[in-house]
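Consider the tokenized backbone below.
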């Protein structure tokens, strides 16, 4: 689905992402791992056109030249949901569909479908974000990201701000949703346990560079260097 060719990001002369070439297959689950400042969130933002970059990003073989034209094909969820506080949960979910001129009947049918998928009811959707729990806000954010039926779902540490019980419950629900929808998923996390849980391919980053990639079990059994071994050991000890 994605093909990155020498994608490079700098801010004020500081390199945030070294020239990176990467392929992400349709239907693949890819987990971006690494410490803070490793470049994983920068790479994710490049995949949705929210970070300026040099190089080429292809989507289904075609170079992306106008991100506004393709962004509706991409769902994006950030830490704590990023919901608009002045809109109800339902208002947040339907905002993009209204902007694109969907008919009311189509919007309502899609909201019902997604509410059932994430386990929210009408009363919860009528609340404002401040009236929802952390887990409920993330479920609303998932509904918003999925509203337009995207081809790929991009998630930036969606579980990190949640308490352990909620995190475990929502992680299980997300994994079930990914399996049911069969869509391309790219997730940023610093948690090795989350990478193991969601499976697929893991990419470990450091200083804006990909250090090693492959199944988590492969990284653990054959670390590419001392940094990989230390990172995995530290995460396993937590």
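A designed sequence for it:
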């Amino acid at each position: 689905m994605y093909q990155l060719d020498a994608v490079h990001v700098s801010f004020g002369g500081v390199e945030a992402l070294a020239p990176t070439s990467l392929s992400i297959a349709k239907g693949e689950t890819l987990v971006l791992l690494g410490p803070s400042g490793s470049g994983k969130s920068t790479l994710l933002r490049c995949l949705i056109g929210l970070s300026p970059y040099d190089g080429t990003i292809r989507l289904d073989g075609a170079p992306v030249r106008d991100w506004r034209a393709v962004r509706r094909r991409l769902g994006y969820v950030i830490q704590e949901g990023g919901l608009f506080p002045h809109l109800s949960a339902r208002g947040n979910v339907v905002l993009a569909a209204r902007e694109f001129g969907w008919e009311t009947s189509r919007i309502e049918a899609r909201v019902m479908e997604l509410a059932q998928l994430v386990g929210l009811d009408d009363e919860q959707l009528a609340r404002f974000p401040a009236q929802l729990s952390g887990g409920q806000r993330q479920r609303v954010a998932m509904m918003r990201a999925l509203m337009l039926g995207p081809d790929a779902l991009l998630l930036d540490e969606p579980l990190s701000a949640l308490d352990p019980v909620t995190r475990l419950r929502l992680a299980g629900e997300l994994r079930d949703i990914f399996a049911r929808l069969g869509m391309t998923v790219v997730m940023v996390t610093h948690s090795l346990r989350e990478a193991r849980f969601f499976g697929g391919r893991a990419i470990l980053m450091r200083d804006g560079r990909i250090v090693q990639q492959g199944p988590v079990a492969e990284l653990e059994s054959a670390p590419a260097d001392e940094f990989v071994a230390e990172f995995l050991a530290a995460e396993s000890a937590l």
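The radius of gyration is 18 Å.
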